[in-house]
Amino acid sequence: MLLRFNVFTKITLLVLLLLIPVLSLYTYSNRESVRVIENEIQSGTTNRLSSFAAQVESNIYQLSLYGVSIGQDSSIQDFQRPDFKGQPYERVKLSVAILEKMNLYNAASKWHSTITLYFPRTGDALSTEYYNTISYQEDAFTKPFLKSWEYMGDSFVWYATEPTTAMSNPRHARLITKINFPINHIKTMLDENKVNNSGDPFLFNATQGTIRNKTANEPKISLLSQKLKSSRLGDKGGFRTKLDNTEYYVSYIKSKSLDWYYVDYVPMQQILSPITNSRNLFYTSIAVLLVMSIAVIFVIYRSVQLPLLQLVRGTKRLSSGDFSVRLRHSGNSEFSLLLARFNIMAQRIQELIENVYEEKLRRREATLKHLQSQINPHFLYNCLFYIKNMARMKNEKAVVAMALNLGEYFRYITRSENDVATIREEVSMITNYLEIQSLRLERMRFTIDVPDDILDKTISRLTLQPIVENAIIHGLEPQVEDGEIIIRGFHENDGVYRITVEDSGVGMSDEKINELQLSLTKPLDDKMGCGTWNVHQRLIYLFGEEAGLSYSRSELGGVKTTISWNDTRS
Questions:
Q1: How far is CA 183 from each of CA 82, 111, 202, 307, rounded to the nearest angstrom?
Q2: Is the model's pTM score more than 0.85?
Q3: CATH for 357-566, options being 3.30.565.10, 3.30.1330.90, 1.10.3720.10, 3.40.50.2300
């Protein structure tokens, strides 16, 4: 079943349906804009970090390349010859030349580094660090060298051997090259990168901590370091995290040379704040618009919907027969005028209905008297014919009984101007009538069983007599054997009263019973008996459409007639 909405509900739904597409489209557009900007932030941060990592790796690669190629220099090859050890002057001269070459390399390199050469065969050592006396100690080179740079103190150190196969066993090396550079070079590059970009780059190692720029945000980097330690980092990637209720995008790249991570992070909200402010402004505007719409809807509800609902309820009560309905109204609006006119209309309709109802009651009373008057001659004709037949048969007792019954009948009908009688009076009258019929037939017996609680209920006069008469004439008289009539009364819980009249006569077929039931609802004609039809019509007039007669088969073999009515009168 489809729902039917009133005008107010349709207006409310229309307002909501207008807001929903706007909200949906804006939310989708805002989400797409945020997604694009977030992708740009992530891509830009990763690209800047990659560029920074490439610069650092390039400088480290130059240092590493020099450490590998320095062993191929001819002067260094000559310096480590065992036979050259006996020429002190030449060795000093050659060592000065080697140091000049190493200083020239430092001067040409972007990063200043300390280069130290160890000669295991001769036990000598040369270094660009002039202020420290460095000597070769054999027990210092017992462990294999790492292939990557090692963080020691405030510098990174890297070892190279000649031949390169001696990295795993430095004692077999002819030359050991040690190159170290201070972390200040990396810090300087971190500072330059931070000045040129919006991030805060640093280097991270899970066991050795962080290397930060000079203006780094120490608390945030400390928090971020904890998150990096607890995360499984790959060679390159990024993730989003919250620090101090602020969302950041973190990008990282693993250094192949240092075994550290280059890390940079940028605040997402700081970049997205214009879009966020625009979104908040839009939602605020929508909220204000919604509040204003609710205010307008409320005014419409008070000014239009409530009067309409009151008018609809009033018309429903009016259509259901409650003509006393009156609507409250105030003010000088159009609806107040309409409600006032409705009250005038309802009052006039009530007056008209009351007049019509009074006229209907008078006509109904006249109809009842007319219908009852049709019963009297019908019953009188039957009694007179019976007296005539009994007189011919010289049956004095039957004549006397019938005469006494006629006397009681006319006393009963003329005793009061009331058209109704109690069940007790009807039962008394029908008892006299059945006694007369039993004298006439001599083979008929009857039983009357009516409870005391319904004997004082009222019903139209002469209701039982035509029904009992039909049972005798059409049911018992046509059969040869003895007959029986049983009259019972019932009072049901729903306030319905029933009186049944059953006979053991010849009975009727179901088709005949249906025709007889249908004839009660048709207009009276010459072919139809008026007795039971009048009884049925009078019951309907007195007690409504639910009252009347009904026919069915009786367990005695004949016909069962049921009188039903619901007497709501006290």
A1: 37, 10, 12, 85
A2: no
A3: 3.30.565.10
